[in-house]
Amino acid sequence: MAYNITLIPGDGIGPEVIYAAKKVIDASGVEINWEVVEAGSKVIDEYGTPLPDYVLESINKNKVALKGPVTTPVGKGFRSVNVALRKTFNLYANIRPIKTYEGVPSRYKDVDLIVVRENTEDLYAGIEHMVSEDIAESVKIISKKASDRIVKYAFELAKKENRKKVTAVHKANIMKLSDGLFLKCSKEMAEKYKEIAFEDVIVDAMSMKLVLNPEKYDVLVMPNLYGDILSDMASGLVGGLGIVPGANIGEDIAIFESAHGSAPDIAGQDKANPAATMLSGALMLKYLGEFKAADKIEKAIAKVLKEGKHVTFELGGNAGTKEFTEAVINEL
């Protein structure tokens, strides 16, 4: 079976890491028809936007996309390509698997958790205004519908991946109505998944617990703002964003991408680390049901990281993007 997938190279190092991931996915044996569409700063002059309609049409048609980092223009009206895509396709779940890999510098061992972040509301709904000249107000939106949906996703993910525990992260001790509603929804949903352990932890305590004992956690689910912060913090525990994949998932559309930026300062120099984008590709294959190919890719990357002979400077080596890619393909 061949899959039709939208490929968005992006800006800066985006094309380098995206085509590295494409080569690895193609080498895994999964048959994919890639539809390449350009977005980002390179198309603004021609289309007046970093996200032309043809990109949205391609994603809407294919339902799955692999995306490189896209630069958000500074000083212009467009907030972010990523935010626009999440809103357009209602990509309500942001998924960030956090895992230690042997050979990657880290203070921790045996970390293997997933941050599940609600992606559509909370303070990131962007509802804010000036109350007076000296006071700005931002509105925090938490709904039962969105909370139920994201917590259910977290439990279903735990069930599918044979994980033992779901932890809901909140600040309901202070924000008794908004975070209180999220916590209430979490507890009610937990009653439907008795086979999976459940706990709730206040967000500031969760930050400390993650730094102290990250290996004790499995699936973390939380509102948008906490998810944004803790997913990056958790990435730092295992060596940084360079080895952490990501996904934004909706009801019938999913976009896979690493969380790191476009790093224009090293673009085109064969220096970029493609591991996170490759792992995002493996995450995409899992979503498609191609579990064997996804597992092969992750194991090949893990072996290259462990050996350390063909890794990029960010990972402590001297290899370029192309050499790293060829090493992973050789392992495949």
From TrEMBL:
Gene Ontology MF term list: isocitrate dehydrogenase (NAD+) activity; isocitrate dehydrogenase (NADP+) activity; magnesium ion binding; NAD binding
SMART domains: Iso_dh
EC numbers for this chain: 1.1.1.42
Pfam families to which the protein is assigned, alphabetical: Iso_dh (PF00180)
Alphabetized UniProt keyword annotations: Oxidoreductase
InterPro entries registered for this protein in UniProt: IsoCit/isopropylmalate_DH_CS, IsoPropMal-DH-like_dom
SUPFAM superfamilies, sorted: Isocitrate/Isopropylmalate dehydrogenase-like
BP-aspect Gene Ontology terms: isocitrate metabolic process; tricarboxylic acid cycle
Enzyme class: oxidoreductase
Domain of life: Bacteria
Ranges where the Isopropylmalate dehydrogenase-like domain occurs: 4-328
Gene3D superfamilies according to UniProt: Isopropylmalate Dehydrogenase
Similarity remark: Belongs to the isocitrate and isopropylmalate dehydrogenases family.
Protein name: Isocitrate dehydrogenase
Taxonomic source organism: Clostridium acetireducens DSM 10703
Taxonomic path: Bacteria, Bacillati, Bacillota, Clostridia, Eubacteriales
